């Protein structure tokens, strides 16, 4: 009901402004700022002001909503023929591309999975989807800068390598097409498939395999709250035939094929953050707050899971003879990963350590990882020029042919923009039932509730209904909440308290760090992470 309310609220505002269904093009970039009067965030305003800047563009591949595609580059792909002469002006004086690669300062995004995908049709013409490359340089000021872009896999005269020294609109268009590919990959793979869909299999396997008295049911069930409901709704409103993503450059057919390609290549290690970071060579890249906060959350979660699992499974033999546990992992292996042994997902458990690692991955995926790819959607994507799901015109085949008029013709029209912004508003908002939990945690302390109300007054100055937003801002179940008294043992209850205390300490550390940042990274602050995928 809350989600439907927000959808009606956003649609009503856009309808009164005459934006819904409009096929008019935007007259200027500035005009796009008038989409919403009431729904704004500090970050969404920042994005609208800085989206053209190269250093901000680069930072989004580390700390935006899709920090999962960039990797260290030690050798250029043969089909991305960047030369020393092309990029030398953008490197440290006296350095070279080869030297910067050896120092570990060159990074790459490769969207080869997009190559050959079926695309949507717009005004009778198939849309262009970039399957290109973006090369980044970590400069001496510790800023990640894009230095070369190729918009298709195979180089040719009609597929030039764009550089920051090109005309402003050529370079801006090239960056927009890379972000278009990144945004579609984010929504379909990083967000929907690798959090929502995995969570659904984890949920159903738990409900089918474990009785409610099983200790792992007690541990996991709070992390699956509302997941089946939101996924059922998403299949209609977002991934359905008339859903919002059907209007993207790929359309539903292309999105589905992209997910199929990505799923084949999904591995256990890619879902385990420490291994993922190492595999992509990102252990030491500076200002990577997703990595910093995520690894701390992984370790805190792992310590908690280790304590609980070892309490109930004192030896490996206890694991092997638990038939319900073996059925659980077998269902996940079969239905989430289609029995693909190459994925590295276990088909059965043999040791306590295997159980600890897998359950850590499950909890991290449905809490921290989902927060990382979901919570910032309005911040980064409501300003559509920064991250558009739809680009209506192909890039010019040669350099020097673009203008700001080209960019406006390429961006979604007024009605399409309104549709995409409504989607990220709905997906990024806070929902659920923390009113009861806040009152429990505060022991009905009126001072605590008044502080919550005062904070809400400050944060919702653009709100249509102040009372509604006060209630809504409290309706979130934060990470580490086990409100239903499922555990009887004092030892397990103490483990939960220690888990919550560690999360609280991390939250304070993240908040302190963010005070020093021009662009704070808040999405992995434990107080901002939902305990389950509920939206």
Low-confidence stretches: 431-474
Task: Count the E strands.
Answer: 7
Rg value: 24 Å
Q: Major beta sheet, specifics?
A: 5 strands, antiparallel
Report helical residue fraction. 40-55%
Q: Which structural category do the helix and sheet elements fall into?
A: mainly alpha
Anisotropy-based shape: globular
Structure annotation, total helices? 22
User: What distance separates the N and C termini?
Assistant: 12 Å
β-strand percent reads under 5%
String of helices and strands: HHHEHHEEEEEEHHHHHHHHHHHHHHHHH
Looking across the biggest beta sheet, what order are the strands in? 1-2-5-6-7
The residue-averaged pLDDT reads: 87
Task: Write a concise synopsis of the structure shown.
With 535 residues, this protein is mostly helical.
How is this structure best described in words?
With 535 residues, the protein is mostly helical. Helix content is 52%, strand content 5%. The protein is built from 22 helices and seven strands. It has helices at 2-16, 42-50, 54-63, 84-87, 97-102, 168-209, 215-220, 227-237, 251-265, 268-271, 273-279, 289-312, 316-320, 323-335, 352-374, 377-381, 404-410, 414-428, 434-441, 446-459, 466-474, 490-514; strands at residues 71-72, 106-110, 121-122, 125-126, 133-138, 144-150, 161-162. It has a five-stranded antiparallel beta sheet with strand order 1-2-5-6-7. A two-stranded antiparallel sheet has the order 3-4. Helix 6 crosses helix 9 (251-265), helix 6 runs antiparallel to helix 14 and helix 12 (289-312) runs antiparallel to helix 15. It is globular. It starts with a helix and ends in a 21-residue tail after the last helix. Residues 431-474 have low confidence and may be disordered.
């Amino acid at each position: 009901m809350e989600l439907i309310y927000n959808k009606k609220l956003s649609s009503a505002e856009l309808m009164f402004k005459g934006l819904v269904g409009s096929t008019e093009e935007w007259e200027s970039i500035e005009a796009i700022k008038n989409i919403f009067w009431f729904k704004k965030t500090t970050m969404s305003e920042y994005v609208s002001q800085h989206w053209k800047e190269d250093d901000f563009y680069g930072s989004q591949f580390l700390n935006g909503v899709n920090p999962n595609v960039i990797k260290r580059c030690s050798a250029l792909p043969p089909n991305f023929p960047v030369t020393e002469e092309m990029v030398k002006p953008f490197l440290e004086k006296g350095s070279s591309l080869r030297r910067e690669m050896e120092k570990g300062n060159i990074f790459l995004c490769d969207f080869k999975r997009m190559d050959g995908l079926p695309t949507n049709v717009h005004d009778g013409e198939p849309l262009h989807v970039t399957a290109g490359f973006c090369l980044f340089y970590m400069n001496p000021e510790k800023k990640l800068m894009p230095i070369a872009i190729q918009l298709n896999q195979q180089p040719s005269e009609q597929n030039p390598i764009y550089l920051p020294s090109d005309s402003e609109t050529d370079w801006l268009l090239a960056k927009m097409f890379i972000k278009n590919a990144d945004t579609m990959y984010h929504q379909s793979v990083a967000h929907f498939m690798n959090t929502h869909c995995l969570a659904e299999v984890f949920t159903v396997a738990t409900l089918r395999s474990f009785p409610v008295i099983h200790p792992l049911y007690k541990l996991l069930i709070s992390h699956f709250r509302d997941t089946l409901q939101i996924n059922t709704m998403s299949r209609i409103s977002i991934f359905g035939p008339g859903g919002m993503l059907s209007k993207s450059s790929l359309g539903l057919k292309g999105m589905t094929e992209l997910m199929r390609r990505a799923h084949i290549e999904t591995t256990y290690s890619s879902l385990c953050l420490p291994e993922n970071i190492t595999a992509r060579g990102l252990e030491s890249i500076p200002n990577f707050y997703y990595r910093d906060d995520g690894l701390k959350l992984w370790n805190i979660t792992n310590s908690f899971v280790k304590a609980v699992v070892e309490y109930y499974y004192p030896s490996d033999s206890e694991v092997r003879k638990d038939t319900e546990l073996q059925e659980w992992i077998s269902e996940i292996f079969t239905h989430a990963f289609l029995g693909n042994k190459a994925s590295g997902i276990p088909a059965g458990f043999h040791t306590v350590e295997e159980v600890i690692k897998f359950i850590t991955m499950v909890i991290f995926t449905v809490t921290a990882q989902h927060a990382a790819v979901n919570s910032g959607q309005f911040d980064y994507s409501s300003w559509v020029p920064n991250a558009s799901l739809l680009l209506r015109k192909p890039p010019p085949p040669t350099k020097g042919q673009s203008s700001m008029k080209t960019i406006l013709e390429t961006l979604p029209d007024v009605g399409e923009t309104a549709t995409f912004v409504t989607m990220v508003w709905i997906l990024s908002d806070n929902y659920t039932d923390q009113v009861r939990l806040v009152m429990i945690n505060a022991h009905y302390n009126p001072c605590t509730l008044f502080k919550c109300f005062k904070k809400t007054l400050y944060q919702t100055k653009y709100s249509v209904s102040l009372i509604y937003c006060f209630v809504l801002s409290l309706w979130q179940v934060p990470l580490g909440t086990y409100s239903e008294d499922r555990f009887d043992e004092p030892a397990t209850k103490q483990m939960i308290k220690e888990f919550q205390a560690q999360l609280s300490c991390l939250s304070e550390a993240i908040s302190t760090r963010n005070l020093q940042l021009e662009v704070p990274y808040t999405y992995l602050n434990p107080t901002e992470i939902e305990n389950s995928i509920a939206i």
